[in-house]
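step=encode ok
step=design start
structure_in=
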């Protein structure tokens, strides 16, 4: 199941800069809009996986996973 996130992008001089609105710290800078969107996807995947692993480590053993929809 794919989730959707919001990329905030803008051109600043010769560079494109962008952020993922819903996840603090996910931001990138590239020379083209296309490259920026691809970099944001990669950074978002990495951040989500890192956060997932951190949550699992914090829960230690004997945890459950629950789906939460907002």
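sequence_out=
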């Amino acid at each position: 199941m794919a989730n959707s996130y919001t990329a905030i992008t803008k051109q600043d001089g010769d560079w494109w800069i962008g952020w993922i609105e819903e996840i603090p710290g996910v931001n990138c800078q590239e020379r083209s809009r296309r490259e920026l969107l691809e970099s944001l996807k990669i950074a978002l995947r990495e951040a989500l996986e890192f956060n997932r692993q951190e949550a699992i480590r914090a829960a230690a053993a004997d945890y459950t996973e629950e789906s939460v929809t907002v």
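step=design ok
step=annotate ok -> The first strand starts at residue 7 and ends at 12.
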